[in-house]
Each structure stands twice: as C-alpha cells, then as structure tokens.
Design goal:
9 helices; nine-stranded mixed β-sheet; 22% strand
C-alpha cells in the first residue's frame, strides 16, 4: 500500500534538497484539476496555478527544476488550458511534446491519423442516439466520454464504440483502453506515459551544467490519478524517483506514494515551492 506523501514529507523534502535536478511531472485531469462532467469545463485552481508560476520563476533561467504536464488532452488544449510559459507540455499521452529542449511528434501516430479521423466521423454520427455520450477529437487520438450517460445506457455506448472501432482494431491501427467514465481510442503503437517520461528525461539531461556538487542525481516525480498513469509511475520509480497516485487508499496502484485529491496536489506543490525558496 502506498504511503501518504504528506505523512512522510520530511523524507520527501530531504530527497528534494539532495537532488541535482528535480523533474516534476503531473497529469492534469484528476490531478491538477478536479474531474468534472464535461472536459471543456475542467480548470486548475487559481492557487495551484500561481504556485506553478512561482516555481517556474524561482528556477529560471538555468533551472534545477523542470516542470511538465503530461495529459491525454491534445497538446494545443493542455498548453492553452495551463498557459504557463517555460513548462514542458505533452499531449495525447505524450504522442506530441513541446517545451524547452524538446519538440516531438510520434511519426507512427501521424501515419495512423487517417484512421483516427475516419472513426471520429463514424462515432460522431452513431453516438448521437445516446444522450450524454460524445466523442472528443484530440488530433492524434479520440476520447469517448459517457459520464453524463444514465447508468442503464452505459453498456450500449460501450457496445457502439466497440462495433465502430473494431475494424480499425482488427487491422492493427487503433487500440481502445478504459479511462474514468471514458474510453480512450489511440494509435496501436508502443508508446505510453512511461515512454513520455523516458523521452523527457533523456532530452533534458541529468542536472544543470553548473550544479554543485556536479555528481548529484536527478529526481523524477510523477503525479497521476488514472490507469494510464501507472506506466508513468513505473518509469519514475525505476529511475529512483517517485510515483504519486492521486486517489483513495482503496484504489490499487503501483505508485509508492499517494495523495487524496487535486487539493492535496496543490498543497504539495506549495511545500515544494517552499523548498526551492529556501534554496535560492
């Protein structure tokens, strides 16, 4: 069972103080921002945003803290929704990444975009008969949301999605995976949030050029709340870093630490801010 991060904060603080460079990576929906019925209404609390802005400012221009947002949303959506310059943004589970030292779009995902577009048009038509269900086109992937669907109608939505996407799944173009009251339809390629974290870590290097002492290690921290985040927890922890699950103690996770809610994520960011204030 994961430890509650705030219950062992002195240990976490020490790890932050000893790190040569901290790579702070966070999911958005359910992690930085509370889950809401419609994805277009999701927003990060103002206090959390202000904390991220100050964290970014505290570590410029030669940062010993790298901040990145890794989301299932499109790159354009997540970067506009957060709207903080100097952060790394990864959209579509990291199929597209933009930020300091890294510009990336997965070439295989671009090849499959035609299948994504075709399935979206089919789903848009077929889901119209299911009140509350809708497909969101995110450029390189799709999400079918059914949080607003009555309980008795959810299985019918899932069946419609299965029948619509099945031809593209059978030829190996797409894969369907569950999310929180949603179905994710993505290119069938070997890439996930763990792959994204590996790419970010490789691109940014270990530590600032003038760090002292020069041999200090990086510390990767990844915060997430859903099944796709488990791959991110694994990679962060494999590097000697931390996976932090946002949710109740009863929910299964591979993360070594947990927080109860996006509110506690905001509180943790404030504590991290205090560590960097003291070091400057």
């Amino acid at each position: 069972m994961p430890q509650h991060l705030l219950a062992v904060w002195p240990q976490i603080q020490q790890s932050l103080q000893e790190a040569g460079r901290v790579v702070l990576l966070l999911d958005y929906d359910g992690t930085l921002a509370p889950i809401v019925d419609r994805p277009d209404l999701a927003s990060m609390p103002l206090e959390t945003r202000e904390t991220l802005v100050e964290l970014r400012a505290l570590t410029s221009p030669d940062p010993d803290l790298i901040i990145g947002i890794i989301s299932a949303r499109s790159l354009e959506d997540i970067s506009a929704r957060v709207g903080i310059d100097g952060l790394l943004y990864a959209g579509n589970h990291g199929l597209e990444i933009r930020g300091p030292q890294l510009e990336f779009v997965h070439a295989e995902a671009l090849k499959i975009k035609g299948s994504v577009d075709q399935v979206y048009l089919q789903l848009k038509e077929k889901l119209a008969v299911h009140p509350g269900a809708f497909a969101e086109h995110k450029g390189l992937s799709l999400t079918v949301h059914y949080r607003l669907v009555d309980d008795e109608g959810i299985e019918a939505v899932k069946d419609t999605v299965d029948k619509t996407v099945r031809p593209a799944v059978e030829i190996g173009d797409l894969v369907v995976s569950p999310g929180k009251m949603a179905l994710e339809i993505r290119p069938n390629i070997s890439w996930d949030k763990g792959s994204t974290i590996s790419a970010i870590v490789a691109a940014i290097g270990t530590e600032p050029a003038d760090s002292n002492p020069p041999a200090r290690e990086r510390l990767v921290m990844y915060f997430g709340d859903d099944l796709p985040d488990e791959a991110g927890f694994g990679v962060a922890q494999d590097t000697g870093g931390m996976g932090i699950f946002v949710g109740t103690a009863e929910q299964p996770t591979s993360a070594h630490y947990r927080l109860d809610s996006p509110q506690q994520v905001g509180e943790t960011l404030q504590l991290i801010r205090q560590v960097f204030r003291q070091s400057n």
